[in-house]
Specification:
469 residues, alpha+beta, two-stranded antiparallel ribbon, 13 strands, 12% strand, disordered N terminus, disordered C terminus
Length: 469
Amino acid sequence: MLSGGLPSGGGGRGRGLCLLRWLGLRLWSRRGTLVFALLWFGSWLFLNGLVLVHRSIMSDYCTDDKSRRILQRLCLDFGDGSVSGDMCEDLCVLGLVEYKRCLYYENGKKVVEARWRGNPVILKSKLENFSSYEPLGILDYQDAAEDLSPLDVVFYATMEVRNSLGLSEDAEDEEGGANNGSLSKLWGKKLKIREKSYSRAELASLWSLLQQEEYTFLRVLQDLSPHVAKVLGSCGHFYAVEYLTAGHAWNQNIFSLDEVDVPGLQAQDGAGARGRWSTREMVHRIALSFLDLVWHFDNDFNHKLHLCDIKPENFAIRKDLTVVAIDVDMAFFEPKMRDILEQNCSSDDDCNFFDCSSRCDPVRRRCSPRRRNSNLQVICEKIFRPWFSPTLLGAKAGLPLQVELQRAMQDCSETDGGVDEAKAHGGVGQRVHQRLLNILNHLLQEEVAFGEREGITEGKNHIHSALNF
């Protein structure tokens, strides 16, 4: 009985093992299929993402070949009579515009370095191709461009300038705070000087330039303030501005001081080297120019000009140490600034627009249209405080005026409230500005006097050494 039962029991266990193996294979097969599908899907997502990133990077990758092709297409448009400008002949026919290098492409904006008649310039355009800009609609209804008189051009250009700067006619004509009159009227005066009518190419090129907010800012403001880069010429949708070396956060002095040309700052030995005190003198002159920039942007126009992207890279200096705003893509006059700030909110954090911020009204759940901070406050916080830090000053950090400067920088960076609020509280912002102005002027006077004493001492030592020899 026992021997006869073994095969029967063994067969049952065998069938059980086979069943288990079959179930295991089915489970492994399903799990393996799922894992394979997930791996395949993940690989597909990764590869497509990689291709997408590669295309986006390469499409905006700054190369000399691509930059040259862009300028060649511009010259083809000029040859076809589609575009015009005071640079076109030199760029496309006479060869007086020499391409140097590509600087950067960012969000469609093209920036290259060139030399125009031997002088370095920067060529800029918001979009790569001329055809990417909206055409002037009135040209579609004109049989000939000569039908548009200069006054017609003034009208359409003024409307576009107002739209670009965020200014209405009523806003421009408001009384108070206007020292230079309507910005659009100033632009119109330039266009009215011309007596003959404009060609279609000239109108189309002008219209493409007016659609670029930075060009409009620079072109209109360059005659009103020394603190904006000068527009030197244009061809089609590209415009040339003066070449200035931008600042850098990693530079101890923010700006390179090797190429400046300020009389009286050279060392006495005539070798062109600059002493330690001469460098500090230049630094304080640049700081004073920053304060002058703030004052101009707060008071020289119909409306305050707000800078919402303040960093060393967006400023440069001329050879006379004047600070210049070279990137004004994030600069807005008061009316447009209010439209940007007045948004829905749940806390003050929702009311920050880059370097411009306001407060959240918990009842209305709307951001205040009035800016809470100011240009001066952000410059103190992001430029002055790192610039004049005790670490960089070294042993001089303990000097009375340097200590006072540190306190003033601290107060400036922590002084809340825009210009309107500051005036309501007794002009706190203005007092901080004046305090910084006084301290920097005193430091500059001390350094000039010290430099003169050092020069006299070096001269005496030089004479004494010569006599001994």
